[in-house]
């Protein structure tokens, strides 16, 4: 069992509370108003709903405490106006700051960035061990899939029923299916003509992310192979976070440009005109949390001439990292194979193929993966 985080030391100033957590070299600096606003005492916080009940806007704008003490490893702050004692659990304090931004995206396991697919060691998880569709859960399969998703951005599931029902059951192991213009669970093969998209073909598709035309790009994508004949058609995955960090290391100016310029994208077919824009590399603080790269769907846009030229150079540099075949995870999916990947992190593509290559696919929300990772970790 992991050791409980506690507060090792407190200091107070006129304006702030300084808190050192166990093992930390630097303190958290908490304004006194923040302390009042984030108290977990029963009058300020509903522990059943995990919602704030204190009226933030009725608090004294510039409060000063009468005392601040450690009680069983948590912080207790008293106020001279008779307000309830503010309680700041160490677990709350450990969750704030830059480290929280990283864990919020990566889930309970830290991401392992990979430029060499040989570094990816996640195993094929049996569908029967996911605990869905009456498959007889052992618990280990779902935990392994979630860990692989967090560490490497994807996982492979074996022996999935190769139909819409099996795809739904696989999705249910993580969250709920997100409905888009393609439907809930949708078929994908080169002989379908339902939608005007390059995915419905047999040529090579360079690595890309889906949903660049959606304000909230799909967080998770999964495919289940239902039929496979002929040659080629191997699936490709690239770690977009690793590519972004490689760009940051070799060309900080290009990284900065791609993390600040919003790139518009579109999806059009009869009756549909979807448009959205966001940076190629989205940051929270200094942490890469989403990569959006789809040159097929990129819309025309114009910057000031010198900045436009700089952007093209940066975009070309990032593309070079993405199409570096030494960084590609390549796998041929056979009937019953399910591929689940983080569409905010991993770019996906395919090699050209002959014969039939049929799948069922769907999208899920990123927050649902994060939720399942946290709840699964808490239960283990």
Describe the protein in words.
This protein has helices spanning 32-37, 90-95, 98-106, 140-152, 164-172, 240-250, 252-258, 305-322, 366-379; strands at residues 7-12, 16-21, 28-31, 45-46, 51-52, 67-71, 74-78, 86-88, 124-126, 154-158, 177-178, 186-188, 205-208, 220-228, 235-239, 262-269, 272-279, 281-284, 287-291, 329-331, 338-342, 346-350, 357-364. The protein has 380 residues and is of the alpha+beta class. Strands 9, 10, 11, 12, 14, 21 and 23 form a 7-stranded mixed beta sheet that branches. The protein has a 4-stranded antiparallel beta sheet with strand order 13-22-15-20. The protein has a 3-stranded antiparallel beta sheet with strand order 1-2-3. The longest helix is centred in the C-terminal third of the chain and has 18 residues, at 305-322. It is globular, with a radius of gyration of 24 Å.
Task: List descriptors.
380 residues, alpha+beta, seven-stranded mixed beta sheet, four-stranded antiparallel beta sheet, 23 strands, globular
Helices and strands in order:
Blueprint: E1 7-12, E2 16-21, E3 28-31, H1 32-37, E4 45-46, E5 51-52, E6 67-71, E7 74-78, E8 86-88, H2 90-95, H3 98-106, E9 124-126, H4 140-152, E10 154-158, H5 164-172, E11 177-178, E12 186-188, E13 205-208, E14 220-228, E15 235-239, H6 240-250, H7 252-258, E16 262-269, E17 272-279, E18 281-284, E19 287-291, H8 305-322, E20 329-331, E21 338-342, E22 346-350, E23 357-364, H9 366-379
Parallel strand pairs: 9-10
Antiparallel strand pairs: 1-2, 2-3, 4-5, 6-7, 7-8, 10-21, 11-23, 12-23, 13-22, 14-21, 14-23, 15-20, 15-22, 16-17, 18-19
Helix pairs in contact: 4-9, 6-7, 6-8, 7-8
């Amino acid at each position: 069992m992991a050791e409980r985080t506690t507060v090792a030391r407190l200091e107070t100033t006129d304006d702030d509370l300084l808190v050192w957590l166990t093992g930390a070299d630097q303190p958290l600096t908490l304004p006194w108003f923040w302390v009042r606003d984030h108290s977990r005492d029963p009058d300020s916080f509903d522990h059943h709903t995990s919602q704030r009940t204190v009226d933030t806007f009725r608090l004294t704008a510039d409060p000063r405490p009468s005392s601040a003490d450690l009680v069983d490893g948590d912080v207790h702050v008293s106020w001279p106006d008779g307000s309830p004692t503010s309680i700041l659990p160490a677990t709350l304090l450990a969750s704030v700051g830059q480290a929280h931004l990283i864990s919020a995206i990566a889930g309970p396991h830290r991401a392992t960035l990979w430029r060499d697919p040989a570094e990816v060691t996640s195993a094929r998880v049996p569908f029967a061990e996911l605990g869905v569709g009456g498959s007889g859960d052992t618990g280990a399969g779902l935990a392994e899939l979630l860990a692989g998703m967090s560490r490497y951005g994807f996982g492979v599931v074996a022996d999935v029923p190769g139909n819409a029902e099996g795809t739904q059951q696989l999705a249910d192991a993580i969250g709920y299916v997100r409905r888009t213009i393609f439907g809930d669970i949708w078929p994908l093969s080169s002989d379908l003509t339902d939608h005007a998209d390059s995915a419905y073909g047999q040529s090579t598709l360079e690595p890309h992310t889906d949903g660049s035309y959606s304000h909230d790009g799909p967080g998770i994508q999964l495919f289940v192979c239902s039929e496979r004949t002929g040659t080629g058609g191997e699936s490709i995955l690239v770690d977009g976070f690793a590519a972004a960090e490689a760009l940051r290391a070799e060309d900080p100016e290009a990284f900065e440009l791609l993390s600040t310029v919003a790139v518009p994208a579109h999806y059009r077919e009869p009756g549909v005109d979807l448009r959205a824009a966001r940076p190629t590399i989205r940051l929270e603080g200094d942490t890469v949390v989403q990569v959006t790269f789809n040159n097929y769907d990129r819309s025309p846009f114009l910057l000031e001439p010198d900045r436009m030229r700089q952007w093209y150079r940066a975009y070309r540099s990032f593309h070079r990292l993405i199409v570096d075949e030494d960084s590609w995870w390549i796998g041929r999916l056979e009937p019953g194979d399910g591929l689940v990947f983080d569409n905010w992190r991993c770019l996906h593509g395919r090699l050209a193929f002959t014969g039939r290559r049929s799948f069922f696919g769907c999208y899920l929300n990123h927050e649902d993966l994060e939720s399942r990772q946290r709840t699964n970790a808490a239960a283990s």
